[in-house]
Specification:
- This protein is an alpha/beta fold.
- The protein contains 12 helices and 14 strands.
- The chain has a 7-stranded parallel β-sheet, sandwiched between helices.
- α3 packs parallel to α4.
Length: 347
């Protein structure tokens, strides 16, 4: 049976283009379309949809106002935002995720991109990830593998976290609950376009007791600070002659369509001077992080924390690292920060 999609966009061109893309698939169909939030609100009061594709900027009632209304009236919907890449729209889109939207699709900048294969592929991948049926949970929050025992006191640690679909909201349940006195810096790769990562970092900084910033090339890593990979750049870590570490940003080609790519972050840590690396894998589609962590574990002691299935928006990345036999502990989202702090310690 086809999944029913509600499409909400004030652009007739976008409605027609997205309808053509979705209706050409065997597993989806646009059941209804609306030109603003007012029409969508009336539809959502009466009908159930498998997913809603929601524009940000619309007359009468925009996407953010609609989400606020749905939340206030306890109307449940699986919402994916369709957003242009402006600073204002980035803020609105991230706010939309706080209000329950699970992901977003960057809106094409022109008619050629609108009809291009890249937009079509991205849209369908996000839809399929959002609507995949979760398999019955078969894991528990207990260690699965034997972590190499540390010899003596190890003081040189780092936390490296990867997430994708559902990540922006998930990070708000992790980063603000970390301690500014934690005995490690934190690196974050969240799959997002340029512009959105800076806005996300600023928002997390407002919510958190520790400093959160979008990473810049040359940043010296400091304990108790969070460095978020900027969209459009790979985040690598380089060891300094002094014994410290710095951020190195790379514009090398995307890996599997991803830039930043978590695998590259993890692999760069293999050549650094850290005694132990706490790897964290949160909600997201795909398998980014698994290969990098697996290779890293052959050179440096790692402790791997994965988000559980029940609290993951998309149980792709956490499932893959778990099935690779690399996970030390599986925990619900609200216990991730505690697991990190327990492992790295606080000064």
């Amino acid at each position: 049976m086809k999944k029913n999609i509600l499409l909400v966009d004030d652009s007739a061109l976008m409605r027609r283009t997205i309808c053509d893309i979705i209706n050409a698939e065997s597993d989806f169909q646009v059941a209804d379309s609306c030109c603003d939030g007012v029409e969508a609100y009336e539809k959502l009061k009466q009908e159930k949809y498998d997913a809603v594709l929601l524009d940000v900027n619309m007359p009468r009632m925009d996407g953010l106002e609609l989400l606020e209304k749905l939340q206030k009236e306890h109307i449940k919907a699986t919402v994916i935002m369709v957003s242009t890449l402006t600073t204002r729209d980035a803020k609105v889109t991230l706010r939309a995720m706080e209000l329950g939207a699970i992901d977003f699709v960057p809106k094409p900048q022109n008619i050629i991109e609108t009809k291009g294969g890249k937009f079509r592929s991205y849209l369908l991948n996000v839809l399929r990830a959002a609507l995949q049926e979760k398999k019955p949970a078969v894991i528990k929050s207990v260690p699965r593998r034997q972590t190499p025992k540390m010899q003596g006191i190890r003081r040189n640690k780092v936390v490296a976290l990867a997430c994708s679909t559902g990540g922006p909201k998930a990070l708000q349940s992790v980063i603000p609950f970390l301690d500014p006195k934690m005995d490690a810096p934190v690196l974050v790769v969240q799959h997002m376009p340029a512009g959105f990562t800076r806005t996300m970092a600023e928002r997390l900084n407002e919510l958190s007791p520790l400093e959160v910033k979008e990473a810049e090339d040359g940043d010296i890593l400091e304990k108790g600070k969070v460095y978020i990979a900027p969209g459009g750049w790979h985040l690598l870590v380089k060891k300094l002659a002094s014994g410290g570490h710095r951020v190195s940003l790379s514009d090398a080609p995307a890996i599997g369509g991803l830039r930043p790519c978590a695998n590259l972050m993890y692999e760069s840590l293999a050549a650094c001077g850290y005694d132990e690396i706490t790897c964290v894998v949160l909600t997201g589609m795909g398998a980014d992080g698994t290969l990098g962590i697996t290779n890293l574990s052959k050179k440096v002691p790692v402790y791997v924390v994965a988000q559980d299935e029940a609290t993951s928006v998309v149980y792709g990345m956490p499932r893959t690292i778990y099935e690779a036999g690399m996970v030390d502990t599986v925990v619900p989202l609200d216990q991730v920060a505690e697991s990190i702090l327990k492992n790295v310690g606080v000064n």
